[in-house]
Design goal:
The complex is a heterodimer of chains A (388) and B (342).
Chain A: H1 2-13, H2 20-24, H3 28-33, H4 37-71, H5 78-103, H6 111-128, H7 133-156, H8 162-183, H9 185-190, H10 196-203, E1 205-206, E2 209-210, H11 211-229, H12 231-241, H13 243-248, H14 253-279, H15 290-300, H16 312-331, H17 336-373
Chain B: H1 2-34, H2 36-48, E1 52-56, H3 63-79, E2 82-85, H4 92-105, E3 109-112, H5 121-129, E4 133-137, E5 147-150, H6 153-168, E6 176-181, H7 187-201, E7 207-213, H8 218-231, E8 237-240, H9 243-255, E9 263-268, H10 272-280, E10 285-288, H11 291-308, E11 317-320, E12 324-326
Parallel strand pairs in B: 1-2, 1-3, 3-4, 4-5, 5-11, 6-7, 6-8, 8-9, 9-10
Antiparallel strand pairs in B: 10-12
Helix pairs in contact in B: 3-11, 4-5, 6-7, 8-9
The chains are: A mainly alpha (388), B alpha/beta (342).
Chain lengths: 388, 342
């Protein structure tokens, strides 16, 4: 695995560009480049900056949790914590679906609609068609993979813009969702089929942890390992950091792009499966606006929308901040509109702070890299990046 | 001496009087217990005062939820009942979160207006299993609970459809009818549609040309109706499952220049704006019930359950709202006004 990292790092660093892949790994990558004493100093500085990047959302998450623990009675009770985890899991899976695409330099606005379609497919296959749960699960994941593959093929091979492509997919899927749910309204409303395994997915526990939360933990760990320790993960980050450089380094960026959209679709569909088992609800507002929540979670976690920079942990922290804020305000009897407005305002502040911080950090990096390599760097290193 | 004697006597009588008064005062509760009128209030306060009632509407952005909340709050404040409101603002996920968190907080009564028939089913059962009385208002879930307060939606659908058949059927017109559903998976829409289709299917002169869901959104109802009118300019009637939403359909009929030709029906909860549209001729007829009266019925259900002594989940109480046809200014009193603060 280290070999894979070196294979990517060497050609990218030879292009006189700061390697966001290495920078994101807590500054350790800079030291590996071994560009002399100055590079070591700048690496330490970048490491600290990345530490601050991760510390801010972590602190914010802890502060919010502490505040609501003080303000809301029984907030720290076992029952409440279990319920919080159960409610947190599915939006976080959708945030991860968004995050994985953003790491790879794209954006997926269809994650909420994919989630809604998956929820419908799960209910249809399991409750109306009465198929075995295993078949229903495969069907749900296949639906997510097909949607992701459509996005991926259009973006990677037909070269359409990710923003517009996934926006169009969102509209198509939403309309499709409305049509199919309306066609099966009565069956869905009266479908009572349940099995122990279905109930385990929706309301069960694994060592005291809700099933969907346990699945999220396993997924997050697996994704973290893939992104930081495996060749495929490094290819995703390299493609997101600088598509051109990644291509020059021998990475098949088109295949990577296709893969991340398929992965994103499958993650969103898995969330839809758990949601279906938990709520058995095919309402028209299922997953409505979840793409915005997912994007907000990614931004609040400090993940760069330009791609190539971020981690699974940050996405989950961003998701937790947003979830704690929204559910906490609801529990404090805040009027619905005010709660949404306050969440939007928090997001605005986070985005503004993130942009200012990123600019300052990039400037510091450019200065550091100039000193270490004596090579000319563009003032704004994000210029050449392929924007979503 | 004589003065001393009378003085002693006075002190003696004073002591007797004091003892009598004290015994009267000490005996007063038992007097109250033997007085059925006084006892009634004592028992009522014991069962009701200090109890907590939690209310989860669909959204506080509609007149019906505002008037229900206003009526409930005013009654519960006077009776010393703690009243909690959680507004999910039309978000099913937020509504589920609100209900699950409230179950952990263990109020004495939980009142919910279900977004759809399945979303809260599992949680409502959990609430009753946890000793919380559950009241569902206007739109039930698939899980029956301690009480249902609201309109009989199947009956409303049937009544409106019968009137449409009387106006459009039997060759009097094209017989074409469009139905604008709310949220298709909600009890309000599912049941009204069921009642209406029973009647329409039984009359061959009626053709239902469109049944689309506008998800309680007046803009969407407007778009749907405008499209239906382009396809069927000879439409006889359009029937919407909620007055506020159907106002959009009424505007589409007016914009198409078909006001008076296409009959706009709606099932209404009686906000003033619905009555105004009837008077302006944009609505042909609305079948209304008074949501402010419904609010008082919800309070009655809460008080009944709190005094019942029954274990939550063991009995079923149903309080139905009465329907009234509103066809003109003579029926203005069937609509309600929100207080200026709302």
């Amino acid at each position: 695995m280290m070999q894979a990292k070196e294979q990517i790092t060497a050609p990218l660093s030879s292009m006189s560009r700061q390697d966001p892949l290495c920078a994101d790994a807590g500054g350790a990558g800079e030291n590996e480049q071994g560009a002399g004493k100055l590079a070591g100093v700048s690496g330490a500085l970048f490491g600290r900056m990345n530490g601050i990047d991760a510390a801010v959302p972590f602190l914010l998450m802890c502060i919010l949790f502490g505040l609501f623990a003080l303000a809301v009675p029984n907030y720290l009770s076992v029952g409440n914590l279990q319920q919080l985890m159960r409610d947190f899991a599915e939006p976080s899976m959708v945030a991860l679906a968004m995050g994985i695409v953003i790491f790879g330099g794209g954006i997926d606005l269809s994650v909420g609609a994919t989630f809604a379609i998956a929820n419908y497919v799960a209910l249809y296959l399991f409750k109306i068609e009465a198929l075995p749960l295993g078949v229903a699960v495969m069907g749900v994941l296949a639906a997510g993979a097909v949607i992701g593959a459509l996005n991926g093929v259009l973006i990677a091979y037909v070269k359409t813009r990710p923003f517009l492509t996934t926006l169009a997919m969102l509209l198509v899927l939403r309309a499709g969702h409305d049509l199919v749910t309306l066609a099966h309204t009565v069956e869905l409303a009266n479908a009572w089929r349940e099995t122990d395994t279905w109930n385990f997915l929706g309301a069960g526990f694994v060592w005291g942890i809700p099933t969907n939360m346990a699945a999220l933990i396993v997924l997050a760990l697996a994704l973290h390992v893939v992104l930081t320790r495996m060749r495929f993960g490094l290819h995703i980050m390299a493609t997101g950091a600088d598509r051109k450089a990644a291509r020059h380094a021998g990475i098949d960026t088109r295949r990577v792009t296709l893969s991340i959209y398929i992965l994103s679709g499958m993650l969103a569909s898995l969330a839809g499966l758990f949601y279906a088992a938990r709520q058995s609800s095919a309402g028209s507002d299922t997953g409505l606006g979840w793409e915005v929540t997912a994007l907000a979670a990614v931004v609040l976690g400090g993940v760069s929308l330009a791609g190539g920079r971020g981690s699974v942990g940050r996405v989950l922290m961003g998701s937790a901040i947003l979830f704690l804020l929204m559910s906490g305000l609801l529990r404090m009897n805040m009027p619905g509109g005010a709660s949404s407005a306050l969440t939007g305002f928090t997001l605005l502040v986070a985005v503004a702070a993130h942009i200012q911080w990123s600019r300052w950090r990039d400037r510091q990096r450019a200065i550091g890299a100039r000193k270490s390599s004596s090579a000319t760097l563009p003032a704004d290193i994000a210029d050449e990046r392929e924007q979503p | 001496m004589g003065r001393d004697h009378f003085g002693n006597l006075g002190r003696k009588w004073t002591g007797v009087l004091a003892l009598t008064l004290a015994s009267c005062l000490m005996a007063s509760p038992s007097v109250a217990q033997s007085d059925p009128r006084a006892q009634m209030r004592i028992d009522f306060d014991k069962a009701v005062k200090g109890k907590t009632v939690a209310w989860v509407p669909i959204t506080m952005g509609t007149p019906i939820d505002q008037i229900w909340t206003e009526v409930m709050r005013s009654h519960f404040d006077k009776l010393g009942v703690n009243f909690i409101l959680r507004d999910p603002d039309f978000d099913s996920n937020a509504q589920l979160q609100a209900v699950t968190s409230l179950i952990n907080e263990k109020p004495d009564v939980l009142i919910v207006q279900n977004i759809n028939v399945t979303l809260l089913a599992r949680e409502l059962k959990r609430a009753m299993d946890n000793g919380i009385y559950v009241i569902q208002v206007n739109m039930m879930s698939n899980q029956p609970s301690d009480a249902y307060v609201g309109v009989d939606n199947v009956d409303s659908g049937r009544l409106i459809a019968q009137d449409i058949v009387a106006e459009c059927g039997g060759g009097k017109s094209s017989g074409k009818v469009a139905i604008v559903q709310g949220e298709a998976t909600s009890a309000g829409s599912l049941d009204q549609l069921r009642g209406a289709m029973e009647v329409f299917n039984a009359d061959k002169s009626i053709t239902v040309v469109s049944t689309q869901a506008a998800n309680w959104d007046a803009n969407k109802a407007n778009e749907i109706t405008a499209t239906v009118l382009r396809q069927h300019p000879d439409l006889c009637a359009t029937y919407g499952h909620w007055g506020i939403m159907q106002q959009g359909a009424a505007q589409a009929v007016k914009a198409a220049g078909l006001q008076g030709k296409v009959k706009v029906y709606a099932s209404s909860d009686g906000p003033r704006s619905d009555c105004d549209l009837v008077e302006e001729g944009l609505f042909y007829k609305i079948l209304s019930y008074r949501a402010d009266v419904g609010g008082a019925q919800i309070v009655d259900a809460v008080l009944t359950l709190l005094q019942s002594g029954e274990k939550p989940g063991t009995k079923r109480l149903t309080l139905l709202s009465s329907n009234f046809w509103v066809t003109g200014p003579q029926h203005r009193h069937y609509c309600y006004d929100l207080s200026p603060t709302q």
